[in-house]
Amino acid sequence: MIALDQPFLWNVHWAAPELILAGFALGAVVIGAWGKDKAAGFLSGLGAIAFATAGVLAFLWSPELPQYLFNGALVVDGFSGLAKAMLGLSAAATLLIGADYFAATRQARFEFPIMTGLAALGMFVMVSANDLITLYVGLELQSLAAYVMAAWRRDDVRSSEAGIKYFVLGAIASGLLLFGASYIYGFTGSVRFDAIAAAAPTSEVGLLFGLVLVICALAFKMSAAPFHMWTPDVYEGAPTPVTAFFAAAPKLAAIALLARVLYAPFDGLTEQWRQVIFALSALSMTIGSIAALMQTNLKRLMAYSSVANVGFALMALAAGGQQGAATAIVYMAIYLPTTIGIFALVLALRRGGLHVETIDDLAGLGARHPFAAALFTILLFSIAGIPPLAGFFGKLIVFRAAVDAGAVWLAVVGAICAVIAAAYYLRVLSAIWFKPPAEPVQQAGGAALATAAVASALIFPILVIGLGTLERWATLAASTSF
Amino acid sequence: MIAAIAFYALAAIAILSAFCVIAARNPVHSVLFLILTFFSAAGLFVLLGAEFLAMLLVVVYVGAVAVLFLFVVMMLDVDFAELKSGFLSYLPLGALVALAMFAELGLVSSAAVQAGQGRAAIPLSDVDPGVTNAEAIGRVLYTDYLVVFQLAGMVLFLAMIGAIVLTLRERPGVRRQDVSAQVGRRRSEGVELKDVKPGQGLGVEG
Predict the structure, then answer these.
(1) B151 and B58 belong to one structural domain
(2) CB spacing of A111 vs B165 below 8 angstroms
(3) Measured between beta carbons, which residues in chain A are less than 8 angstroms from residue B121?
(4) ipTM of the complex
(5) Residues B154 and B118 reside in one and the same domain
(6) Which of B158, B160, B166, B171 to mutate to test the interface with A (most CBs of A within 10 A)?
(7) Which residues of B touch A33 (CB under 8 A)?
(8) Which of A402, A378, A342, A404 is nearest to A463 (CA)?
(9) Is the CB of B5 inside 8 Å of chain A's CB atoms?
(10) Taking the model in full, what pTM does it have?
(11) CATH code at position B5
(12) Are residues B50 and B141 in the same domain?
């Protein structure tokens, strides 16, 4: 009989973070079935602990050399460990900042932590995928959870529209992915990444066609231009904690997955796929920066901002090899807390009992709540790339990677886009500090405000000092993984 | 020869009935055409020598999924004619896009065929020909693809919870069957004995 090539428990031990997430989801259903929606608060707390534990465990237990689990379906290495730590922590942060919001809008339902847990499980599988089937199943698990979460306020027209729109377009992207994967399988005879790498030394046109289709589908999932059309509508319609989740973790998972697909099986085709990534990166940065200038809604603004930031991460990926992977992961490590912090602040502020939605809602915040306004300033300065903050160093290493890859023009495009993008971040800040308040803004939501404070602390003093450590971890992880 | 004829017949029926699924005016007809599409696909699987998959397709898709579709279509009060009203107006543009994509696919395929000429075909699997279909799938499903199999289970679990979250509503004033209350009912709660004296109530009029 054919069996696993390693003892079963050996496989299980490496897959412990995934098992924690799956176990949480299954256990939470049982607790929820008895506790009903009164258990929502408890499950949110439990979920946050479980996700953070799974992420940190994945990082602490990451092996020195890549370990192939379940006959090569999954791979665990330093790269996946670092990515999982960030994914787990951002999923936990989503639950923390979301609890107040759902309680205030009377939407607290015990299924929300379960959905987040299953989405996190899907993302963990994505960053550990070592064959095309695992890749697809992980992606689908994450996407399905995301469709449901986008439509969470089912009585709200915009939320339902967001769910339907995301679902239909996501299904098309999944179709593209499967079509491309079938080409890759047909031309190499395998779905395993290592076997594809061994069989794909030449740039055969059919194989390239499949690879381009797979890249397009992944670009849709990370909302890189020109596959970003759904992003503003879905981000605006979904409940704000869900938007915070979408803007953070799935982007990192898709970037890490793209790094795996490009570097492991298609290393021999670098010159071919690099053109595609260059185009995606330049378009994302340009469209994300220019389209955001016209937005008045904070969530739409952040949607375009996330498109631009994905462009920067793609620029890092285009560098290829260990430097590309390490730079992309450091860039995302800086982007994630920044964006979660901004959303946490948006969730913590109300005006007339309603959560703030537009830039004008923030007018006069500086005079009334200087602490929240100061946090906003730190986070927005960081995401705009103003020097003493971590965001600046993120952009710096990305530009360095692009120049090392010989794409000076792309770095120039990125620098111009960063300047344009700074304009709209500063517009928000001018509303906060200089505009006269129309109606006082209330500050609520202790957990959300605390998360924002932690995020700003990470961005400001701690991360700048720890940036060297982070970069060393990322380089080490990338050097053992690729 | 027979196999070639069967292939072209099944493939043509599959494509035609797939088109009818989206073109049919009556949604019930659409579902029936969908069943025909699944059936033709099952026939193609048999031609490939994958009888087990063919049977699965018939049992799962035709037997369960298509019938469920029929239920949904018949029970939901959706005006499908109105939903489809824009179909014809989008047809020219849609056909143009489809034609362009088809031409591109053809170009890529022909280029791929030309590049691959003279090369041996890639063996797609190393299955022992003496083993039946079902056994071959069974051998890899719980070993090589164990983790994917389990994850597929998680996807179904998620789909189930998602469907409940988005559709289940607590409606007030709905009477439900409470089995435990029914079973736990005692004679003393259900039966009341009245002591009626002989002759009482006789002769009362009106």
Answers:
(1) no
(2) yes
(3) none
(4) 0.89
(5) no
(6) B158
(7) none
(8) A378
(9) no
(10) 0.88
(11) 1.20.120
(12) no
DSSP helix/strand/coil, A238: coil
Number of structural domains in chain B: 2
Judge if B86 and B139 occupy the same domain.
no
B143 Cβ under 8 Å from any chain A Cβ? yes
- CB distance A326 to A470 below 8 Å: no
Based on the domain organization, do B93 and B154 belong to the same domain?
A: no
Domain that includes residue A288, residue range: 8-479
Domain count, chain A: 1
Contact with chain A for residue B152, Cβ under 8 A: yes
- Is the sign of the CA dihedral A403, A405, A406, A409 positive or negative? negative
Are B67 and B97 in a shared domain?
yes
Burial track B49-78 (b if 16+ CB lie within 10 A, e otherwise): ebeebbebbbeebbeeebeebbeeeeeeee
pLDDT 10s per residue in chain A (482 long)?
A: 345 677 878 888 888 999 999 999 999 999 998 888 788 888 999 999 999 999 999 998 888 888 888 888 898 988 899 999 999 999 999 888 888 888 877 777 888 999 999 999 999 999 999 999 999 999 999 999 999 999 988 888 888 899 999 999 999 999 999 999 998 888 888 888 888 888 766 667 788 888 999 999 999 999 998 899 899 999 999 998 999 999 999 999 999 999 999 888 888 788 888 889 999 999 999 999 999 888 888 899 999 999 999 999 999 998 877 888 889 998 998 899 889 988 888 888 877 777 788 888 888 788 888 888 888 888 898 888 887 788 888 899 899 998 988 889 999 999 999 999 998 898 888 888 888 777 777 776 677 777 777 777 776 666 666 777 777 777 777 777 77
CB contact under 8 A, A141 and B154: yes
- A2: in domain: no
Q: Examine residue B12 and state whether it is found in any structural domain, yes or no.
A: yes
Name the residue type at position A36. Answer: K
**Quick check: is A1 in a domain?**
no
Residue type, B38: F
Count Cβ neighbours within 10 Å for each residue of B14-37 and write b for 16 or more, e otherwise: beebbebbeebeebeebbbbbbbb
Same domain for B84 and B21?
yes
Gap from B21 CA to chain A (nearest CA, Å): 18
Residue B76 in domain = yes
pLDDT digits (tens, 9 = 90+) for A400-451: 998 988 889 999 999 999 999 998 898 888 888 888 777 777 776 677 777 7
- CA A70 to chain B, closest CA, distance in angstroms equals 6
B97/A contact by beta carbon, under 8 A: no
The distance of A20 to chain B (nearest Cα, Å) reads 13
A398-411: string of b/e by CB count within 10 Å (b at 16+)?
A: bbebbeebebeebb
**B143/A2 CB distance under 8 A:** yes
**pLDDT cut 70: percent of chain A above it:** 96
Nearest by CB: A145 against B139, B140, B158: B158
Q: Is residue A135 part of a domain?
A: yes
Q: In which residue are the tokens 């597929």 written? A: B152
- Specify if B191 maps to a domain: no
Between A3, A141, A148, which is nearest B143 by CB? A3
Domain that holds residue B58: 1-127
User: What is the rounded CA–CA span in Å between residue B39 and residue B124?
Assistant: 25
In a domain, B159, yes or no: yes
Mark yes or no for CB contact A25/B154 under 8 Å: yes
In a shared domain, residues B17 and B116: yes
Do the domain assignments include residue A3?
no
Mutate which of B148, B150, B156, B170 to test chain A, going by most A C-beta atoms within 10 A? B148
Q: Is A264:A194 a contact under the CB 8 Å cutoff?
A: yes
What pLDDT, in 10s, does the model give residues A13-27? 888 999 999 999 999
Tell me if A209 and B108 make a contact (CB, 8 A cut-off). Answer: yes
A116: nearest CA partner in chain B: B158
Q: Is B121 on the interface with A (CB under 8 A)?
A: no
